[in-house]
What we know:
This protein is α+β, with helices and mostly antiparallel strands. The chain has a single domain (7-138), classed as Nucleotidyltransferase, domain 5 (2-Layer Sandwich). The chain has helices at residues 28-45, 61-67, 77-93, 110-123, and strands at residues 7-10, 54-58, 98-102, 136-138. The strands form 2 sheets. It has a two-stranded antiparallel sheet with strand order 1-4. The longest helix is centred in the N-terminal third of the chain and has 18 residues, at 28-45. The radius of gyration is 14 Å and the shape is globular. Mean pLDDT is 82; it is low at 130-139.
Amino acid sequence: MTDDGAREIAALCGPLDVGVDGIERLTNNTAELKAVIEALRFARNDPAAKGRPVLLRYDSAYAALISCGVWKAKANKALAKVAQDEWALTRRKTGGRLWLSHVKGHSGHRWNHRADRLADAGRHGETQPPGLAPGIVVD
C-alpha cells in the first residue's frame, strides 16, 4: 500500500494529563501509547472511519507492539492495559481488519513528519479539537 493518494481526515494534539487512561508520568513512551489509544478510539467510533479497515502506521515499536500484545509492558502498565483493551475492541469492531505498519521515524515520511509536528505542538500546550486522532489517513 502506498501513501500517494492518502489524505488526512483528522488530527489531534494536546497536552497529556497524569491520571487519564492510567498515565503515571509524562514521557515520550507515554505520549506514543496515548497516540495509539486515541487513533484506535477514532478508528472504532468516528463516522468518518467506521466500518473501514485500519492500518496504523507507527514509528514507536514500543507503543505499537505493547498495544497489540506482542510485547509486555515493564512500565506504564495501566496505560499499556488501556492500549491493549482498545486494540482488542477495535480489532473486533473491524472484523479483524486491523494492521500495523512500521514507518522509520525522522525519515521524511510524509505522515510521520505530520505526527511529529502534532506531537511537538501538543508538548508545547497547543490543542486541536478532541475526538480526532493523529495520522489517520485513507487511500
